[in-house]
Design a protein that fits this description.
Strand content: 25-35%
Number of strands: 41
Number of helices: 15
Shape: globular
Largest sheet: 9 strands, antiparallel
Helix content: 10-25%
């Protein structure tokens, strides 16, 4: 994609969630999701003048629309293009150097870009996926209608409940009103809406306006908060009602029964049921509106006698009965790596968090883990120091620091991310709070460039500030406003922290009294409001100050648990900056850094670890592991993390070879052998981190 450098915004839409602007030369349209801060460029041969138009002309939901006149639209390479006729029937799907030519007719075109975008125009139409650009050609200038939809989901209403487990059961049973379908297509993230909010009150009150689907499925549970919390995401996904029972089990009106008190225990049994039904829905849905060659379907059909064609039109009860006839072990290795496991203490004060946990389709567990004494964390700092040739006095602390909570290492899971909603400071998981979820939900749409703020409050740490020029704002096709501040006073830092921005990178000293400034310290607990969405506090013992930023308005950030050596913190800071600038979510960024750095275990996430600062080029956040093979060959392993734009259930098609099938995002992609030239060609498509010999590379220099 060509660099744009946006000019003045074209007020082609009054809708706040989605807007349209012009690139600096006016030759095209930039589609903007103003809530999720995503941009998608449609390039035209010459300047266009977008005019607002009625979005109802599109068959699928759109938040806003414009019309332009052009004979050609260029898109980022590897943009998937689906073309349908007026009746909605699929005519063509083009990706990865494919080409389709269609004659006269009216076409609806779905573009899988950074923002969900739809086109409607008359043919003839040619779709040509070239190595560096995907091109839509119309033969001669045509009126092209451009519609877009924000991926942001807001709860429709609020349900009031008491802390009585029976009332919570009734409230959770209404969560499935947010599903946009009860067919297998609900496994697509865009067809799962945000559940209604919960609010504790004196009595149960479920709004009459909620349209709760009648699926004929129920989950019987002993009436305890623990059982309700663990079963909530599964109940939401299945559209099941929670009802009291002596033993936990899944029941359908067709007579199917599945017990949850088997040899693996209640919590793991529910987890397996969620993963099994979700995964097999993803397999069966390939018979529907997106008929793609899915690797997982091919493998499941080779191992089992599942009847995909018949199950697509079957009732939910019939599908569940068929799914649970398949031994779990036969599909376990095919399941997508789950995005999130949330450890939630089953207490009344956590009831209001259930809609947010469910929106992530998280696996829910009651908290368990191993207590880690603060001295062990501090000892790790000493070990890190002894491994390196650094000045013992060069640490990022302005004074003494005292841990405010007990450290705990949550029990291991196979999820990409873990969140901890309980007492203690988690090591290896996000410390999630109610404020983080509410702040993300309530964040106002903003128009204009992506805001990056860098603050360096110690002249000895200027080495890390080269990220201002080298990393932040270096993405082609995205427009940034990067603002750097140095040696701020207390008043200046307070003002900077209050200013609206998408991301704050702080470099300096922090201790129990707060952020060090040239004339004293600023304690984040005294701040009334914080304007940043995400942050990175690369300073000693910044955990408590990070939590305070979340309570004051931020959504999530990366912090440190203890003292960090300056020279090592610089390396972590640079790597994290590049990952965040590449679209990696906060928690996923740390996972990659831990491959490359011995000191990354000193860093953690507070707030919402799934937050991304900017969009990734391909929707998911991707890195590759490369291994040497004889004969100038390389073995490439492809890894994808889900993002807010491409949640669990999304599809990916790695561009490693022309014949690659589709995979479920975050599924393990089989290792692929490539020559050096083929690997260079693949890495030229998109700048992604590459792990080679346990080191993170950002270009192809390891091939030289």
């Amino acid at each position: 994609m060509e660099p744009t450098g946006e000019g003045e915004r074209a007020d082609a839409s009054s809708t706040l969630e989605v807007g349209f602007s012009l690139p600096s030369d006016g030759a095209g349209v930039v589609v903007r999701d103003n809530v999720e801060r995503r941009q998608f460029l449609l390039r035209t041969p010459s300047p266009v003048d977008p005019e607002p138009t009625d979005s109802s002309r599109f068959s699928l939901p759109t938040d806003a629309a414009v019309r332009i006149e052009t004979d050609r639209i260029g898109l980022a390479a590897n943009t998937v293009v689906c073309v349908r006729d007026e009746a909605g029937s699929m005519l063509a799907r083009v990706d990865q150097q494919g080409r389709e030519e269609l004659g006269a007719g009216t076409y609806s075109i779905e573009l899988f870009g950074a923002v969900k975008t739809y086109l409607r125009t008359d043919g003839p139409l040619t779709v040509d996926a070239q190595p560096l650009e995907t091109v839509l050609s119309f033969g001669e200038p045509q009126t092209v209608f451009v519609g877009a939809r924000s991926s942001h989901e807001s709860p429709a209403t609020t349900i009031t409940t008491t802390d009585d487990p029976l009332d919570v059961m009734a409230a959770v049973s209404a969560f499935s009103s947010a599903l946009k379908t009860t067919s297998v297509e609900r496994s697509y993230p865009t067809l799962r809406g945000h559940p209604p909010l919960l609010e504790l009150g004196d009595e149960l009150a479920v709004p009459d306006a909620l349209d709760v689907p009648e699926t004929g499925v129920s989950i019987e549970l002993p009436p305890t908060l623990r059982h309700v919390f663990v079963a909530t995401p599964l109940a939401y996904y299945l559209g099941a009602r929670l009802v009291p029972g002596d033993a936990p089990r899944l029941v359908t009106e067709d007579g199917f029964v599945h017990d949850f008190d088997g040899p693996h225990g209640f919590e793991e049994a529910v987890e397996r049921a969620l993963k099994r039904t979700f995964f097999l829905d993803c397999v069966v849905r390939t018979e529907g509106i997106y008929d793609v060659p899915l690797h997982e379907r091919q493998t499941v059909e080779s191992r089992t006698d599942i009847g995909v064609e018949g199950l697509y039109d079957a009732s939910l009860g019939e599908r569940l009965s068929a799914y649970f006839e398949i031994p779990y072990e036969e599909v376990a290795d095919l399941l997508p790596e789950w995005k999130l496991t949330t450890h939630v203490a089953p207490r009344a004060d956590n009831i209001e968090l259930l809609p947010f946990v469910t929106n992530d389709l998280a696996v829910v567990r009651t908290p368990s883990g191993t207590e880690v004494h603060h001295s062990e964390v501090q000892a790790a700092v000493v070990d890190d120091f002894l491994r390196g040739d650094v000045d013992a006095g060069t640490v990022r602390s302005a004074g003494t620091t005292t841990p405010s909570e007990t450290y705990v290492k949550p029990s291991s899971t196979d999820s990409v991310e873990q969140a901890w909603i309980s007492d203690g400071t988690p090591v290896g998981a996000s410390k999630t709070t109610p404020a983080a979820y509410r702040n993300r939900l309530q964040r106002e749409p903003t128009q204009g460039d992506i805001g990056i703020t860098v603050v360096c409050n110690d002249p000895e740490m200027l080495a890390e500030t080269d990220i201002v020029d080298e990393v932040y704002g270096s993405r082609d096709g995205l427009s940034f406003d990067v603002d750097a501040h140095y040696d701020l006073s207390r008043a200046e830092l307070r003002e900077t922290l209050a200013e609206p921005t998408d991301f704050l990178h702080y470099i300096g000293h922090i201790d129990d009294d707060g952020f060090q400034c040239r004339d004293g310290k600023v304690d984040a607990e005294t701040l009334d409001t914080v304007g940043t969405g995400a942050f990175f506090l690369n300073a000693c013992q910044s955990y408590d100050q990070g939590l305070a930023l979340v309570e004051a308005g931020a959504i999530g950030g990366i912090v440190t648990f203890s003292e960090v050596i300056n020279s090592q913190a610089v390396g972590v800071g640079r790597t994290l900056a590049r990952l965040l600038n590449g679209g990696f979510p906060l928690q996923a960024s740390l996972e990659v850094v831990r491959i490359d750095s011995d000191v990354a275990h000193q860093y953690g996430v507070v707030g919402d670890g799934s937050l991304s600062v900017v969009q990734s080029e391909s929707g998911v956040a991707v890195y590759c592991e490369v291994f040497d093979k004889p004969g100038e060959q390389f073995e490439v392993s492809y890894h994808a993390f889900n993002t807010s734009r491409a949640g669990i259930g999304s599809l990916i098609r790695p561009a490693l070879t022309d014949s690659m099938p589709y995979y479920l995002s975050s599924s393990g992609v089989s290792n692929t052998d490539l020559t050096a030239d083929e690997l260079r060609e693949f890495l030229a498509l998109e700048q992604i981190p590459v792990i080679y010999d346990d080191t993170v590379y950002w270009d192809r220099e390891f091939l030289s």
